[in-house]
Amino acid sequence: MINENILGIVAGTLTSLSMLPQLIKVIREKNVGELSWVMILILIIGLSLWVWYGFLNDELPIIFSNAFAVLVNVCLFICYFLYKNNADK
Amino acid sequence: MINENILGIVAGTLTSLSMLPQLIKVIREKNVGELSWVMILILIIGLSLWVWYGFLNDELPIIFSNAFAVLVNVCLFICYFLYKNNADK
After folding, report:
1. Cα separation, A60 vs A8, whole angstroms
2. Distance CA A15, CA A7 (A)
3. N or C, fewer C-beta in 10 Å, chain A?
């Protein structure tokens, strides 16, 4: 019998890990490349609704992994406006 | 009272939507740019575990949105190997 919480934690760790290289790259190069702020905003709204969904269903793996993803994408959103003028350099 | 399923469907639609521009761009330009196949693979494994988690908890919004994300990322993974030699053009 597999424990859903452990499965959710492993799943959340992997999907969270996969987001980090983009954030690190944007921060290191101070360049948002071809990121679209509209898409980041849609993603932040969607992820926030998943956090809400996690609270309604009382599912910690859903809450934590999506809250982490919100954090990463809020950072990307801030970077977008900090670095957008670096796009052509 | 908010229905969790409707919330999950809206959340899943938004997070799914936000993935499409990257896939469309890769297919249209036949160029994977700086995508990393290792990260796509980690993401596919993580998303597949979320689908499994959804089945264990019998949550359709989790199953559908993550299955869609698996599909998008399997396409990206295939595109990676089809187009990786176009990176320098």
Report:
1. 9
2. 12
3. N
> CB–CB of B84/B32 below 8 Å?
yes
β strands within B1-89, DSSP E: none
For the domain made up of A4-86, give the CATH fold. Monooxygenase (1.20.1280)
Question: Which residue, B55, B9, B62, B4, is CA-closest to A15?
Answer: B62
Q: What share of chain B is helix, strand, coil (3-state, %, to 5)?
A: 80, 0, 20
Write out pLDDT tens, residues A39-67: 999 999 999 999 999 999 999 999 999 99
Show residues of chain A in contact with B62, CB under 8 Å. 62
Which ipTM was obtained for this model? 0.87
Residue A22 above 80 pLDDT? yes
Q: Do B8 and A53 lie within an 8 Å CB cutoff?
A: yes
B46 and A18 Cβ atoms separated by less than 8 Å: yes
Task: Determine phi and psi for B79, rounding to 5 degrees.
Answer: -60, -40
Query: Which whole number is the average pLDDT over A75-85?
Result: 91
pLDDT tens per residue, range B22-59: 899 999 999 888 788 999 999 999 999 999 999 999 99
